[in-house]
Amino acid sequence: MMRAVHYRSLGTVEFLVNEQLGQFYFLEINPRIQVEHTITETVTGVDLVQAQLFIAQGYSLAQLGLATCPEARGHSIQLRLCAEDPQANFSLSVGKITEFSVPTGNGVRVDTHIDMSGLSPVVIGAQFDNLLAKIIVTSLFSWQATVLKARRVLADTRISGVKTNLNLLRGILAHEDFLNGTVDTQWLETNLAQVQLGESISRSVQTTTQTPRSSSSSLPQSNLLFRPGDAWSITLEPLNSHQDSQRQQQHLQLTRVLQSDFPSSLSAEVQHTMPSSSMAYRMKLESTNTAASAMVSSHRRGDPHNPRHIVLPLSGKLVEVLVSAGDTVQENQVVAFVKQMKMELEVRSPRAGRAQWVFEMEEEEEDVAEGVLLVELEEEVRGKL
């Protein structure tokens, strides 16, 4: 004997609305609450997740005070902050969150799994969705007031450790079309190149608020950090008491700053002094958006401008490398598979050649960073005429 079991819950129905013509178009219905539910909650004051749980227990809408549709008040924008690189076709960015701060206050709600105190660092991997936070900004006055408040929130948002779409969000909100509400479903595709760099949101905020930002805050951070003559004492002390090496006192001094875009990069000449020697070096520091496991010593950075290098074009989990040193590689041949969230992507060789060096995987599936060298081809040997 079979018995049907019925479950009750809340669902989400999606429409597109043409306000000028007063027409709406059905898109889809989902038997669950969509990620955009925060907008409905902020403008109606109804906790949809709580209502969903009560309905599943058998409560009616009337018992929850929802017999009639709640009246919406004000305007709300949901901003999805994601670990992705808009400059690289929105590819996933993996790494450890080292800084995350979103200003809060009246009309600003932040839904996130990241500990903003920094006490429990979060590592963004390739297995799950790359959504870092939903920032919901609400104003009871007008759409324009909501946009201006959201601009201020994004201007003061800070995140380090991975690449994100923060600048893209800033650029979208800074555009006058968005402020005036004259955007449609094709607007971002048409204007992507214009808004992708996040056109100086700080200047836009300054012209629309009564409290200008300090002039020093607009200076590049690196100009305030490094100058020739800056020096540090470095102490290396073994963690393992059984190690034979002794505590080492070293000294590092900047003698010349060549290029400073810290924390993304720093190029300088340095004097490295140890008790027994002193050497001058040219140092180049570059940030990476990857977990520590993806930067072990066997990894090499590739040069995308070197025709002999087959470089990983995105971050993710390296699933398999299909060639070995000495193998002949054909142009457009698949040399590796990399996984981002639910998708496995092919990495192909841009030209033919013989593999001289190949990335060696140390795990069954290994976190790797964008720009890691996968295969180095031998130099082409040209015959004499």
Structure description:
- It contains seven helices and 23 strands.
- With 385 residues, the protein is an alpha+beta fold.
- The strands form eight sheets. The chain has a four-stranded antiparallel sheet with strand order 12-13-14-15, with no helix packed on it. It has a four-stranded antiparallel sheet with strand order 16-23-21-18, with no helix packed on it. A four-stranded antiparallel sheet has the order 20-19-17-22, with no helix packed on it.
- It is globular.
Characterize this entry briefly.
With 385 residues, the protein is of the alpha+beta class. 16% of the residues lie in helices and 34% in strands.
| C-alpha termini separation | 87 Å
Number of DSSP helical runs: 7
Derived from helix and strand composition plus strand pairing, the structural class reads alpha+beta
Q: Major sheet: size, sense and barrel closure?
A: 4 strands, antiparallel
As residue ranges, the low-confidence spans are: 199-224, 292-297
How large, in whole angstroms, is the Cα Rg? 27 Å
* Structure summary, number of beta strands: 23
Tell me the strand percentage band. Answer: 25-35%
Strand order of the largest sheet: 12-13-14-15
What order do the SSEs take from the amino end to the carboxyl end, as H and E? Answer: EEHHEEEEEEEEHEHHHHEEEEEEEEEEEE
Helix content: 10-25%
